[in-house]
Amino acid sequence: xxxxxxxxxxxxxxxxxxxxxxxxxxxxxxxxxxxxxxxxxxxxxxxxxxxxxxxxxxxxxxxxxxxxxxxxxxxxxxxxxxxxxxxxxxxxxxxx
Length: 96
Hints:
single chain; 96 residues; mainly alpha; elongated
């Protein structure tokens, strides 16, 4: 079960980043919060079922690190997009 929750968390992170790039900040935050819950559930499940091992710990640390990196890169890219009323995201990209 721990592998599945890690995959679900990874998909939630990617979905949150995609939502953030589409200017849907509330959806992005919700998906990122669910991803964090998936990672915490993975760690808790591993501890309580005595499946905790070094490879699982390394994968969990890598997943959390990748999450933080993706969120930070996504936020920087979203900040760099010029906010102009009445223009779509595609029109702003074409203008750049």
